[in-house]
Amino acid sequence: MKASAVSAMNRLSTPFVAATVPFCEYPRPQLVRDSYLCLNGDWRLSCRRKGTERTVGTVRVPFPPESTLSGVEKTLSRNEQWIYERTFRLPDGFLKDRLLLHFGAADQSVRVFLNDREVGEHLGGYTAFTFDVTSAVCAGENRLRVEVWDTLSPDLPFGKQRKKRGGMWYTPFSGIWQTVWLESVPNEYIRRVRVTPTLDSVTVEVEGGAEEKCLILHTEDGATEYRFCGDSITLRVEKPRLWSPESPYLYDFSLASGTDEVQSYFALRTVSVGKVNGRERILLNGKPYFFHGLLDQGYFSDGLVLPASEEGYRFDVKTMKSLGFNTLRKHIKIEPEAFYYACDREGMLVFQDMVNNGRYSFLRDTALPTLGKKHRSLPRRMSKRRRRMFLETAVATVDQLYNHPCVVYYTIFNEGWGQHNPDGVYRCLKAYDRSRVWDATSGWFFGNESDVQSEHVYFKPIALTAQRKPLVLSEFGGYSLKLDDHSFNPKRTYGYRRFTDRDAFNEALAALYENEVTAAIRGGLCASILTQVSDVEDEVNGLVTYDRRVVKADEATMRRLASQLRQTFEENV
């Protein structure tokens, strides 16, 4: 066990305040029950090495131990594992028939014990998992123990983590890093609801529950009750209101089955690819739409991979909307549902990346492609286990995010990182979810099959023209402006074009959009993703500082640019 990189650098605090029990809000906004016991807060943390456990102290869950807000600021060394322990009592009347223990995410490999009985294990650090712990729970005090291994194995998805952080690679995190909570349900309970909308109807598929079900839809005209049997129902919505960044309208509904009842919501929204005036375009609600976006890493100076509170997510979404953006590309990270809920409510589109595994080569995966050495295939040896773990995580990601209207686009492979069999993986995932746009290879190494032509441009002018598919500029820019009082690393600066003056920084951004992105729109560009929302550690190429205390981009300038891009797009469509 050793000090984390965060503790060795400037300790930057964000303006968001962590509660005594952090992230105590209901963590699953699309399947809400009246049964919830949050287990976040102080846990006892130990470190085990070669069979010997040593007490570390108290860790504040769900912040990873490497973060400042965890109260630990340490990371695992080789052959070590975290041991989390706490006790809890169920409130009187809480337990119905079954007790479920939920984890939003824990990195990377987990074994869970309740009252000294193993109740389950999970592999993979970015997706949610649940154990039925009914047989292990007891009256009175219960002892919960969570053992976590994190070797940063390339077999498992690891994202932007690296043991030796620096540049575009970030401090590794481990252990529990999303909400832990208990839920009590009847024997026949609704395990999952899958919602697929059109522009005037919605199909609700139900997994679990009793045979007879009752759905109550709430609209401005009141509540309408629909009774049905089986596992799905399709509703026609009168006077439909469509969801978009300009009008993010959400429909609330409740679903009852036997003695179980849940609350949820949906939006009427479609995304597709279609030809308009001779060119393939990405269509939002059946119409060409320009996706004006930013790369969003989802890192924070004090919570590392979490903000101090849900307000951090709302701040990022609202601030980027105030700058005129309508899209965030969530880069190689799966967030808690609170982030996607904020995007649903505020009207922010999300291009969601899958999380990479496999080994990275700077020469092959970054240097040569940036210099123009791109090709259509990327021979790479990937073990069966790595292929299986990538696909399992990708499928779990789709399941987890399927109902969020903000999620309109998935990126499978980024710049060759872990890329393997892109055509085959594309076909598999596209068949699994046909309601989204799929970008098989973002950046350099193109396969034959993808919904879009996805390009990265750094260090040279943007000179792109759409070919057979919708053209997406999925990364560009990366202009850096370092503000010393808000900088994580005083010794290192990482970015693709450096500025020391805020006015010059904003003027360069304006010129980039006015001279290059605008020209690409005339050539068929459908989406542009600027690097990036915020600074992250060494990277100072964000529009906002790492501590979220300074917005470097000028709001009036950015809103003017957004208006100009929209006008140019409309003129060319």
List the helices and strands and how they pair.
Elements: E1 2-3, H1 5-8, E2 37-38, E3 41-49, E4 52-61, E5 74-75, E6 80-88, E7 98-103, E8 106-107, E9 109-114, E10 117-123, E11 129-132, E12 142-149, E13 175-176, E14 180-185, E15 190-197, E16 201-208, E17 212-219, E18 222-229, E19 232-236, E20 243-244, E21 247-248, E22 251-257, E23 260-266, E24 271-276, E25 279-284, E26 287-288, E27 291-296, H2 311-322, E28 327-330, H3 337-346, E29 349-353, H4 362-370, H5 384-401, E30 407-414, H6 422-432, E31 437-442, E32 453-457, E33 471-477, E34 479-481, E35 497-499, H7 502-522, E36 525-531, H8 555-572
Parallel strand pairs: 27-28, 27-36, 28-29, 29-30, 30-31, 32-33, 33-36, 34-35
Antiparallel strand pairs: 1-5, 2-14, 3-4, 3-6, 6-12, 7-11, 7-14, 8-13, 9-10, 9-12, 15-16, 16-19, 17-18, 17-22, 20-21, 22-23, 24-25, 25-26
Strand content: 25-35%
Gross morphology is globular
Number of H/I helices: 8
Task: State the name of the first-level CATH class of the largest domain.
Answer: Alpha Beta
- Category from helices, strands and their pairing: alpha+beta
Calculate the mean pLDDT score and round it. Answer: 94
Can you walk through the features of this model?
The protein is of the alpha+beta class and 573 residues long. It folds into three domains: 2-30 and 36-95 and 98-185, Galactose-binding domain-like (Jelly Rolls), CATH 2.60.120; 190-266, Immunoglobulins (Immunoglobulin-like); 271-572, Glycosidases (TIM Barrel, Alpha-Beta Barrel), CATH 3.20.20. Helix 7 packs parallel to helix 8 (555-572). The longest helix has 21 residues, at 502-522. The relative contact order is 0.12.
